């Protein structure tokens, strides 16, 4: 029986290979080859394409450990990722619950359309739109002064809260979508059974709804935390001088300083740190999921 099962498995793999090959070939060309080139660059003193003499070195990685600035910026980026993920959970999870269990019909479709609407616009357009809202004399400032009997000055541009607002707006749809899928899969009869047994709404939320929807919550948190840690557009545009994070320093190495070897080394250090964090959190996340 085991031999027949193994034979059937190999046969199924051969039949599925033509369907899998294009996707894996694309992943190899679009992801692994550029990553391999960046690994190669991170151990070089200069780019071969620059025409200057170059050699292999570990100095680019040593720069990270010899200058405390990079470590402080990395910690600031990790903290930013945790804060944005937390705010996305606070905002996105209730919205996903309402979509999955409260709204029906066309009202659900309309709200769902509003959730995915940010995906239809360019990221720079969204960021500069927030710049028009948050700056002094902007939309928020003008609207509040038109309603309130006293004059206030709202100027959040080039501040840490502005970076949080821009990042949360960009990534909260991921939390809504992942949580919506798991919440929708929860059988309504379980909720009705809990209520018939006298459980309050808070008890149902803590003992039934959140545990069963935890896979979507964990998936959304991972989808948000990883890109936010290396983000640079929102901190650069909305944060100004206060928006200097690890991702903006990496961008500077590639765009402004043209020091690709150091930028590649800093990028892979960030990748290693994120992978270590996910590996350490894997047992807890696996238990929760």
UniProtKB/TrEMBL annotation:
<keyword id="KW-0472">Membrane</keyword>
<feature type="transmembrane region" description="Helical">
    <location>
        <begin position="158"/>
        <end position="183"/>
    </location>
</feature>
<keyword id="KW-0812">Transmembrane</keyword>
<dbReference type="InterPro" id="IPR035906">
    <property type="entry name" value="MetI-like_sf"/>
</dbReference>
<feature type="transmembrane region" description="Helical">
    <location>
        <begin position="23"/>
        <end position="43"/>
    </location>
</feature>
<feature type="transmembrane region" description="Helical">
    <location>
        <begin position="262"/>
        <end position="285"/>
    </location>
</feature>
<feature type="transmembrane region" description="Helical">
    <location>
        <begin position="84"/>
        <end position="103"/>
    </location>
</feature>
<dbReference type="GO" id="GO:0005886">
    <property type="term" value="C:plasma membrane"/>
</dbReference>
<dbReference type="InterPro" id="IPR000515">
    <property type="entry name" value="MetI-like"/>
</dbReference>
<feature type="transmembrane region" description="Helical">
    <location>
        <begin position="110"/>
        <end position="133"/>
    </location>
</feature>
<keyword id="KW-1003">Cell membrane</keyword>
<comment type="similarity">
    <text>Belongs to the binding-protein-dependent transport system permease family. CysTW subfamily.</text>
</comment>
<keyword id="KW-0813">Transport</keyword>
<feature type="transmembrane region" description="Helical">
    <location>
        <begin position="204"/>
        <end position="226"/>
    </location>
</feature>
<protein>
    <submittedName>
        <fullName>Polyamine transporter subunit membrane component of ABC superfamily</fullName>
    </submittedName>
</protein>
<feature type="domain" description="ABC transmembrane type-1">
    <location>
        <begin position="74"/>
        <end position="281"/>
    </location>
</feature>
<keyword id="KW-1133">Transmembrane helix</keyword>
<dbReference type="GO" id="GO:0055085">
    <property type="term" value="P:transmembrane transport"/>
</dbReference>
<dbReference type="Pfam" id="PF00528">
    <property type="entry name" value="BPD_transp_1"/>
</dbReference>
């Amino acid at each position: 029986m085991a031999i027949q099962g193994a034979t059937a498995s190999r046969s199924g793999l051969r039949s599925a290979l033509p369907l899998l090959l294009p996707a894996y070939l694309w992943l190899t060309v679009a992801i692994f080859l550029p990553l391999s080139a960046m690994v190669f660059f991170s151990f070089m003193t200069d780019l071969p394409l620059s025409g200057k003499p170059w050699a292999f070195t570990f100095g680019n990685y040593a720069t990270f450990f010899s200058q405390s600035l990079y470590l402080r910026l990395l910690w600031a980026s990790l903290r930013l990722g945790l804060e944005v993920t937390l705010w996305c959970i606070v905002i996105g999870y209730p919205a996903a619950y309402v979509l999955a269990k409260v709204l029906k019909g066309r009202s659900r479709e309309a709200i769902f359309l509003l959730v995915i609407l940010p995906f239809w616009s360019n990221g720079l357009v969204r960021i500069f739109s927030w710049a028009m809202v948050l700056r002094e004399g902007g939309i928020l400032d003008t609207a509040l002064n038109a309603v309130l009997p006293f004059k206030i000055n709202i100027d959040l541009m080039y501040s840490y809260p502005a970076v949080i607002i821009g990042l949360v707006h960009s990534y909260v749809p991921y939390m809504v979508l992942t949580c919506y899928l798991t919440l929708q899969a929860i059988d309504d009869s379980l909720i009705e059974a809990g209520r018939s047994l006298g459980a309050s709404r808070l008890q149902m939320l803590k003992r039934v709804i959140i545990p069963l929807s935890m896979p979507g919550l964990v998936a959304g948190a991972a989808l948000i935390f990883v890109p936010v840690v290396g983000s640079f557009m929102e901190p650069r545009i909305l944060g100004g001088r206060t928006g200097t994070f690890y991702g903006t320093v990496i961008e500077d190495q590639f765009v402004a300083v043209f020091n690709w070897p150091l930028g590649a080394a800093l990028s892979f250090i960030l990748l290693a740190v994120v992978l270590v964090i996910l590996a350490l959190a894997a047992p807890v996340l696996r238990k929760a999921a």
